[in-house]
Amino acid sequence: MSTHDNLPATTATDEAAAIEAAAAALPAHKPRRTDVDPKAARRAERQVALMFLGSALMTVLFVVAFVAIPVEESVYIWGFGTVNASNIALGVTFGLAIFLIGAGAIHWSKKLMNEKEEIQLRHSLASTDEDREAAIEAFDDYSADSGFAQRPIIRRSLITAMALFPIPLIVMLRDLGPLPEEALRETLWKPGSRIITDPTGRPVRPSDLAMGGLISAMPADLPLVQEEEGNLNARAKAAIILVRMEPQEIVSQQGDNWDYGGILAFSKICTHVGCPIALYEQRTHHLLCPCHQSTFDLADSGNVVFGPAARRLPQLPITIDPEGFLVAKDGFAEPVGPSFWERGDA
Amino acid sequence: MSATVKTAGKSVRWVDDRLASSNFLKRSMGKVFPEHWSFMLGEIALYSFIVVLLSGVYLTLFFKPSMVEIVYNGSYVPLKGVEMSEAYASTLDISFDIRGGLLMRQVHHWGALFFIAAISVHLCRVFFTGAFRKPREMNWVIGVGLLTMALLAGFAGYSLPDDLLSGTGLRIAQGIMLSIPLVGTYLSFFVFGGEFPGTDFVSRLYAVHILLVPGLILALLTAHLIMVWYQKHTQFPGPGRTNENVVGYRLMPIYMAKAGGFFFVVFGVITLISGLVTINPIWLYGPYTPDQVTAGSQPDWYIGWLEGALRMMPNVEWVIFGYTISWNILVPAVIIPGIVFTLMGLYPWIEQWATGDKSEHHLLDRPRNAPVRTALGAMALSFYILLWIGGGNDLIASFFDLSINAITWFLRIAIFVVPPLVFIATKRICLGLQRRDRDKLLHGMETGNILRLPHGEFIEIHAPISDEEKAVLMSKPDRIPLPAPEEMDENGVRQPGARMHRLRAKLSNFYYADNIPLPTREELEAAEAHLRHEVEEAAPVMEEDRRLVPAHDGSVLHDPLNDDK
After folding, report:
1. How far is CA A223 from CA A184, A214, A219, A232, A235, in A?
2. Is B10 exposed, middle or buried (0-12, 13-18, 19+ CB in 10 A)?
3. Is residue A338 within 8 angstroms of chain B, CB to CB?
4. Hey, are the CB atoms on A309 and B75 less than 8 Å from each other?
5. Neighboring chain A residues of B182 at a CB cutoff of 8 Å
6. Taking CB atoms and an 8 Å cut-off, how many pairs form between chains A and B?
7. How far apart are CA B515 and CA B372, in angstroms?
8. Could you give the ipTM of this predicted complex?
9. What is the pTM for the complete model shown?
10. Do A118 and B247 touch (CB under 8 A)?
11. What is the 3-class SS of B204-252, one letter each residue?
12. Whole-angstrom Cα distance, residue A93 to residue A215?
C-alpha cells in the first residue's frame, strides 16, 4: 500500500479548485467598524499609540522607583496588607510597561490589520514512492561501499568497542560519594550518651519533663560532631523526642524497662521517608508525621497505627546517670529513618 | 518607498546573498495559521519558559549554590545571627538587599508555575481534540518529555534555596531513592555525596537546574516548534475547513502582532502578579535542619499528585531473603509515575493499534465525537485530581474539620471506584451530545415557540441551524469498528494471529461501536422537507398571532388596529 494516499495527490489546477471551493464555503466576511468608519479607525489608531506611550511612561517610572524607593521600605496597601514598597512599585511599573506593549500590538492587529482569512493547502508529508525507493537504494549502495555487512569481524569488533566505551563515563561517577557500608545503621547514640535538649542544649532531669509533655532532644556530643564534620548528617539521624506518660499507661515497649519512670525516648525521624515527627496528641499518645500522616502509638512500642509508614519508630533505651540526668542506656537497636534495600529485618 | 522598507530590503538582500533565504522568507511570512483560543495554551507555555529563562539568568548573578554554613548578617532582622547555608543566605539577600531581586525571584517562581500549568492544560487540549494522531505522534512524545523536564526543573529549583520547606522536600526525595531495590542506598550516597543532607547537594542540583534540564528543555522545545511549523497546525472543523487545507491568518502581520504581542502580555501578567502576590516566602520558613518541620507543609502544586499518592498508599513492606522492598514508597513514588508517563507517551500508538486508524489527521476531533478517548482522558484526570486531593488531605481535614484517617480511607477506595464511574459518565455524556447533534441536523434548533394549530395540535417551531454550525456538525467522521476476523481461511486452516485480530476487533468495537451515526443524505432531505412543511403550516397561524395582543390577565385580545384591514 502506498503510504501517501492519505491526502490526494494534487495538480496545480486541482489546488486552485480546492482553494476556491473552501473559499466559497467560508462564512461571508463582516466588515468591522474600523473598516467602514474612518473615524473609528483613527480612534483605534490613537488607542494603540496611547498604549505604547503608556508603556514608555511606565518604563520611566520604573527607573524612578528603582532609584527613589529604598529596598527595605514597606507600605500598607488596602487589600494586600503591608508589603515591600520597592517590590510592588517595580513589579507594577515594569509589568505594565511590558503588558501595554502586548496589549497595543494585539489591539492593533484586531482593529486595523487586514483580518481576511486565507486558505493554504496541506501537502502529503510522505515523499513520493520513487523518492523513497531511491533513498533506500542509495542507502544500500553506500553501506555496501563501506563493507559493514560483508566484513563481520570489523562490524563485531566495532560494536564491542562502542558498547564498552561509555563504561569510563559511569566508572568516573564512583567518587561522587562514599559507599554506604554501615552508615545508615549507626547513630551517635551509645551507652551513657547524655541527652540534651534541642535547640537549647541543656541536660535533662526527669523532673524537667511535665506529665504528658514532649521535648526534642539530641546526644550531648552532637554540637561538637556537627562542628567537626561541617554538615548536618549526624543530626539527621540522632534527633529524638522525649515524652512522659504515667508508667501504667505504657502498654508495651521495644525492650524491658527502656523507659525511665514513664519517660520514653523515640527517634524523631519518620520510618516512612524521613520527615521529622513532632505532632503529639497527649491523650492518645499518638505521634503524627506532618508530611504523610503516618501515626505511631508511643504507648505501644511506637507501632504504626495509621498511614504509609511500615515500621515502628525505633525506641532509645534510657536511664539516669549518677548526677541525675537522663542518658542513653544503649544505642538504637534498629536503624532509624526510612527503610532501605539492605536493611533486611534488622 | 519609505525608509523603513528600503532598509528592510537592504538587509534581506544582504542575508540572501549569503544564505539564499528569500524563498524561505517569503513562504514563512505568508504562512497561514488557524486561530482558536485553545491554541494559545502552548504559546503561554513557550512564553513563560522564556520569562523563566530570563529571570533565571538574573538570579544566577546573585545566588550562591553552596551549603557552607555561615552566620546571617543581612537586613532581614528575625534571622540575624542565625547559622544557615550560603544558599539560603544569598536567597535572603536577593529578597531583601537587592533592588528588584525579590521581584525577579517571584517572577521566576510564578513563571515556573505558569509554565507547568500551561503545559498541563495544553496537553489536555491536544489529547481531547486528538491532535496527537498521525502525523504528530512524535511531537506528542516530545511534549511528554517536555512536561517531565518541566516538573524536574521545577522541583530542582524549588529545592535550591535550602530553606526548611525545600529541605523537607529533598529529604522525602532521598527517602524515595532509598526505597529503590538493589541500587537505592548507593544511589542516595552518590547523589548526596554521602549521607543526607551532606554539603554537596545544592551545588550538584544547581548544575542540573541551570544547565542540564534547561538545555534539554530548549532542545526539545526547538524540535517541538519546528515540527509544528513543518507539519502545519491542526484546525477545528468549520465551513471551508478540510483535512487538506489550513484556514487562518498569515504570520505577517497578524500573528507577528498577535503572538508577539501575546508574549508581552504573558510576561506583563507574570510580572504584575509577582509585584502584587508573594510566592514562596522562604524567609518565613527558616534555614533547613533535618530535625524540624512545619505542620501543613506542602510542595508546589505540580508535585501534589505524587505527594498524595505517597500519603494514600497503605503501609506494605516486604522482607525477602534479608532484603527490604518498600512497596509503600515504591508504588506511589516510582511505579505509579512510571506507568502514568509511559501510558501517556504511548497513547497515540495504543489508540492507533486499537482502532486500526492509520490515516493522517489535520482536522481536530470534537471531544464528543471520540467518546472513548474523551472518557479515558476524563478518567485519567479524575485519577490525577484524587491523588492531588490526597496531597492536601491535612489541609482539607483542618479546614472542614474532618478526620484525616477518614479522608485517606475515602481516597484509598475512591481511587479505584471513581475513575471507572467517570469513564462511564463521560462516555454517556458524549453519546448524548452526539444524539443532540444528530437531532439538530434532522430537526433544527428548538426555538421555544409553541404554536397551536387551527385543528388544536400544539407544535414547537424549529428553526434550521446555520450553515456554519451545520458544517461543524457534519464534520463528524464516520468510524467503523474493525470487522471480526475469520477464524478459518477458505481452506479451513486456522488463521495465524487470529487471537490478536479478535482482540483488535474487540478494542475497535470498544472505541467506535456506540457512536451515533450521522444522518444519511435521504434522512437529511426528508428532515428538510418536514421542516419546510412545518414552517408552511405555521405561517398563517403565525400571521394571525401577530395580530394578537396579550391582555394584563394573561388572556389574548384582538388588536382592533390590526384587525380586518
Report:
1. 20, 21, 9, 10, 9
2. exposed
3. yes
4. no
5. 341
6. 335
7. 10
8. 0.93
9. 0.92
10. yes
11. HHHHHHHHHHHHHHHHHHHHHHHHHHHHCCCECCECCECCCEEEEEEHH
12. 49
> Which residues of chain A from 28 to 57 reach within 8 Å of chain B, CB to CB?
none
State what percent of residues in chain B have pLDDT above 70.
95
Note whether A294 contacts B: Cβ–Cβ < 8 A: yes
Quote the pLDDT of residue A2. Answer: 40
Which pLDDT score is estimated for A225?
A: 95
Query: What is the domain extent for residue B470?
Result: 446-478+519-565
What domain count does chain B have?
1
Give the Cα separation of A298 and A243 in Å (integer). Answer: 8
The answer to whether residue B40 sits within a structural domain is: no
Measured CA to CA, the distance from residue B130 to residue B163 in angstroms comes to 43
Only one residue has cell 501510558, namely B343
Collect all residues of chain A within an 8 Å Cβ-Cβ radius of residue B467.
27
Task: List, for residues A51-63, the tens digit of each pLDDT value.
Answer: 999 999 999 999 9
Q: Is B470 on the interface with A (CB under 8 A)?
A: no
Is residue B465 predicted with pLDDT exceeding 70? Answer: yes
Q: H-type helices in B129-212, by residue range?
A: 137-159, 164-179, 184-191, 201-207
Contact residues, chain A, for B199 at CB < 8 Å: 230-231
Contact B310 A105 (CB under 8 A): no
* Residue B220 resides in a domain: no
Please write down the HEC assignment for all residues of B355-381: HCCCCCCCECCCHHHCHHHHHHHHHHH
Asked if residue B530 is part of any domain, the answer here is: yes
Rg for chain B, CA atoms, rounded: 31
Examine residue A199 and say whether the peptide bond preceding it is cis (omega within 30 degrees of 0).
Answer: yes
Helix (H) or strand (E) holding B410: helix B404-443
Asked if A235 and B289 touch (Cβ cutoff 8 Å), the reply is yes
Residues 6+ apart with CB under 8 A from B103: A87, A90, A91, A94, B271, B274, B275
| Peptide bond connecting B135 to the previous residue in cis, omega within 30 degrees of 0 | yes
Angstrom distance (rounded) from CA B131 to CA B363 = 8
The bridge status of strand A286-288 relative to strand A279-281 is antiparallel
Per-residue pLDDT reduced to its tens digit, B147-158: 999 999 999 999
List chain A residues with CB under 8 Å of B313: 308
Smallest CA–CA distance, residue B341 to chain A, in Å, is: 23
Place of cell 509503600: B328
Q: State whether A273 and B310 contact (CB < 8 Å).
A: yes
Q: Quick check: is B459 in a domain?
A: yes
pLDDT (0 to 100) of residue A1: 36
- What three-state secondary structure class fits A31? coil
